[in-house]
Write a structure and sequence with these properties.
- The radius of gyration is 19 Å and the shape is globular.
- The protein is mainly alpha-helical.
- 66% of the residues lie in helices and 0% in strands.
- It starts with 6 loop residues before the first helix and ends in a 14-residue tail after the last helix.
- It has one domain (17-135).
- The chain is built from eight helices and no strands.
């Protein structure tokens, strides 16, 4: 499959979506992914690899000498993005997530954001614990993170 290189596929998708989605261009998807991954903590050079960009760290001298495709990092970034998309397409779960991030004072909100970022980055068990805490907050508690001395 060639993805959306064929504009007829996008036209077909636009027709099926009708008025449910505002007019958009393929570049909007790339911008949304790049911005979202950045907000989720994916490093800029990994975002560029995901988008197959040749600017930024791949431009100039660095691009000549650094031939690393960052495959592990790209897979991890796409896994983070997959978990995030899964979260936001479930309206109830996303509402619980937003409420979790917005509760309490500034320190509590920062801690909640840290728990979210750690869980979404690690996936598997920590992500499952995070999701369970959203739907059953009285049942699940997050393990304490140890502070470096």
């Amino acid at each position: 499959m060639r993805g959306f290189r064929d504009w007829e596929q996008k036209a077909d998708l636009d027709q099926r979506l009708g008025d449910a989605v505002a007019p958009w261009k393929l570049h909007d998807v790339r911008r949304t992914v790049a911005t979202g991954m950045g907000k989720l903590g994916v490093l800029p050079h990994v975002v560029e690899c995901v988008l197959n960009h040749q600017s930024g760290f791949r431009a100039g001298v660095s691009g000549v000498y650094n031939r690393n495709p960052y495959e592990r990092e790209v897979r991890a970034a796409l896994s983070v993005w997959e978990r995030y998309i899964g979260l936001i397409i479930d309206r109830d779960l996303y509402a619980a997530h937003k409420a979790f991030l917005e509760r309490g004072d500034k320190k509590a909100r920062e801690k909640a954001d840290e728990q979210f970022r750690k869980a979404i980055a690690e996936g598997d068990g920590p992500w499952d614990v995070y999701l369970l805490a959203l739907v059953e907050p009285k049942v699940v508690t997050f393990p304490q993170t140890q502070q470096a001395v």
